[in-house]
Design a protein that fits this description.
By secondary structure, the protein is of the alpha/beta class. Helix content is about 35%, strand content about 25%. It is built from six helices and ten strands; from the N terminus they run E-H-E-H-E-H-E-H-E-H-E-E-H-E-E-E. The strands form two sheets. Strands 3-2-1-4-5-6-7 form a seven-stranded mixed β-sheet, sandwiched between helices. It has a three-stranded antiparallel β-sheet with strand order 8-9-10. The structure holds glycinamide ribonucleotide. It comes from Aquamicrobium terrae.
Length: about 210
């Protein structure tokens, strides 16, 4: 099973979904650690309660962004991580860190990329008046929310929605989507090559079908 470390900053509901999926021995990834940049992240308590080793690596304990990411990289080495899953990790990672983990690091974003990169996706979706919204799991590349797309799930935007109701509907779609995407990666059914995503078929890997 692929040794997977989840990076969080807060609630950790996507992390919890991955931990739950990986509690099935047939799931191809195991969650071997959780790292947070925030000592008070709720997800740290959830992970610890489930017996998953956790570490806090705070930006304020490091002189530079590069040093912070180096400390995270060292922790990943300590966990012998094969895969890094960003799950509500609210910090941009340095290019050298991203390049080192290229093809082995994925992120979940609460919008149908390439629409609504960045923050406040649900607020902006409502303002734009779109009728279909959703979430995306993608490979992490140095540009924010820009990497090749592995999987997406769509949800309707309903009359009367506010940010909270829309966020809740999207979040419900995020959890199974992330479980599916990590499974595909851990089984080598999806890979990133030359900045593009490739999916396994009966005939080998095909580019972005
Ligand atoms: C999720 O909606 C995730 O997609 C989003 O933060 C939330 C974290 O919730 N991620 C981003 O906005 C990344 N920029 P969780 O901690 O309960 O998984």
């Amino acid at each position: 099973r692929k040794r997977t470390v989840v990076l969080i900053s807060g609630r950790g509901s996507n992390m919890t979904a991955l931990i739950e999926a990986a509690s099935d021995p047939d799931y191809p990834a195991e969650i071997v650690g959780v790292i947070s940049d925030k000592a008070d992240a709720h997800g740290l308590r959830v992970a610890a309660a489930r017996g998953i080793p956790t570490q806090t690596i705070a930006r304020s304990d490091h002189a530079s962004k590069a040093d912070h990411d180096k400390a995270i990289d060292a922790a990943l080495a300590g966990f012998k991580a094969d895969i890094v899953a960003l799950a509500g990790y609210m910090r941009l990672l340095t290019t050298s860190f991203v390049e080192k983990w290229s093809g082995r690091m994925i992120n979940i974003h609460p919008a149908l990329l390439p629409a609504f990169k960045g923050l406040d996706t649900h607020k902006r979706a409502l303002e734009a008046g779109i009728k279909v919204h959703g979430c995306t799991v993608h490979f992490v590349t140095p540009e924010m929310d820009d990497g090749p797309i592995i999987a997406q799930a769509a949800v309707p935007v309903l009359v009367g929605d506010d940010e909270a109701t829309l966020a809740a509907r999207v979040l419900k779609a995020e959890h199974p989507l992330y479980v599916l995407a990590l499974k595909l990666l851990a089984e080598n059914k999806v890979t990133m090559a030359g900045g593009k995503v490739c999916f396994a078929t009966g005939n080998g890997l095909v580019e972005n079908p």
